[in-house]
Amino acid sequence: MSDVQSNRAGDGAAPGSRLDAVVVGAGFAGLYMLHRLRQLGLSVRVYEAGSGVGGTWFWNRYPGARCDIPSMDYSYSFSPELEQEWTWTERYATQPEILRYLEHVADRFELRRDIQLGTRVTAAVFDEATDRWAIRADDGARVSARFLIMATGCLSVAKTPDFKGLETFQGPLYFTSRWPHEGVDFTGQRVGVLGTGSSGVQVIPVLAEQAAHLAVFQRTPCFSVPARNAPLDPAHASWMKANYPEYRRRARETRAGVVMEGDPRSALEVSPEEREREYRARWEQGGTGFLATFSDVMRSPEANETAAEFVRSQIRATVRDPAVAEALSPRGYPLGTRRLCVDTRYYETYNRDNVTLVDVKASPIEEITPRGLRTRSAEYALDSLVLATGFDAMTGALTRIDIRGRGGAPLKQKWAGGPRTYLGIAVAGFPNLFTITGPGSPSVFSNAIVSIEQHVAWIADCIAYLRARGLGRIEATAEAEDRWGAHVKEVADGTLYPRASSWYIGANIPGKPRVLMPYAGGVGVYRKTCEAVAARGYEGFSLSRGG
Prior knowledge:
- It comes from Sorangium cellulosum.
- Pfam families: Pyr_redox_3.
- By secondary structure, the protein is α/β, with parallel strands linked by helices.
- The chain folds into 2 domains: 18-157 and 393-545, FAD/NAD(P)-binding domain (3-Layer(bba) Sandwich), CATH 3.50.50.60; 190-390, no CATH class.
- Helix content is 31%, strand content 16%.
- It contains 15 helices and 20 strands.
- It has helices at 3-6, 28-39, 56-59, 80-85, 95-108, 198-210, 234-252, 272-285, 301-318, 322-328, 396-399, 411-414, 448-468, 478-493, 523-535, and strands spanning 18-24, 44-47, 115-116, 121-127, 132-137, 142-150, 173-175, 190-194, 213-218, 224-226, 341-343, 355-359, 365-369, 372-375, 379-381, 384-387, 402-404, 433-435, 473-476, 541-544.
- Strands 1, 2, 3, 4, 5, 6, 17 and 18 form an 8-stranded mixed β-sheet that branches.
- Strand 1 (18-24), helix 2 and strand 2 form a beta-alpha-beta unit.
- Helix 9 (301-318) runs antiparallel to helix 10 (322-328).
- The longest helix has 21 residues, at 448-468.
């Protein structure tokens, strides 16, 4: 009998609110987690702050929003029937199409009845007497659950900039991460965009086609490669559907969760002419596969610089104004150590007469005024402001909830010096808590769906293991957590990632500890590690019968 069927109250919860598991978030991770837990016969409730399912793809509706992983890779593999019945229309799917896909999944597997929308979890406290989580939501609801599973996403808490005068701006203010569902018409307006990361790179070309004038305020230029997006080739789609089982198997063994052929040679062992040909071929092919052109692009500073200079040469060849091209050319950090952007005519946009690039590193923003923005050297009249200012990545969605483990210890306090986890799945001192694609796992360094499915399956198998043995409690040991943290750092130090002030290390959030949060060892190696931990009876965890 499941706990909810027993209808015992306890833990301050109302009768009928005792659950086997609570899942926070109804995006890719939450939907699949719900499906797997249901298959185990568990009572489950998913809490979702949005008014619809979709997670990231429910909120990020800005013009031009699309995935930077090919759509046929960026999809579930757990259901062969789903793989065959769904037809993608573009190489890189747009936000509306991805959201339709997730809505289809929710309906096809009848998931909605266990999802509570418009409800944000605000607190969760572990009760050591009962080995259960007492969970509170913003509507005052209280529930109790044996297992608490965080499917909150790595990029779900927007960073709000602290520019002086922001609250005085009299025009509309839009966050790319919280775009109005009804859309926005910028026709005839003077629009300012703050931020040139992945969201900015996607939204800027679209807004430039609408606005009377677009001012782009850039602090740090990004490296961006062309998507070469196009309608999905029916022959390719048919081949993928026919070969999905083997293709997915190969993807799970790769570094990034996507099958892409890389040159095993060093960029430094080929002639300059051959190196140029290889980079150009990848550039014309489009997509993040550019990083795999040679084997040492992300390990050797010298090899990386050859790839970085190729991108800068393409910017110079595209942007007509040499001064603008130079301002758009990234320097001072290795290619790929800040998120590599994938664009559609991003650099070409700066050839338009109605687009101005403002280098705010050279002339910092001093104030947002009621009618625009003032830098150290000029003032810009604006009708609307668009903030593409990024996220409090990976930890923000977890620390904004008051999660308290054994002894009432807050997770936020435990992570004050940087996130510490075991495998990116569990946290010492927080029994029966699982984090899907948490810090210390490949997460944002991979095709997110591959990493999500691996974590969900591991968590479901773990819970099944516990139930089959009459165990009610599992907790990562401090020793295992320390060993994993040391390993994550050792792997990171063997790459170029720590050399950039990126959101990967929390550098975009004032006061956030500088720690490379994702695991850089690759999804294939990581999967084998997780499988070995489970095969050895969940090595590194303390298991007990529980309350």
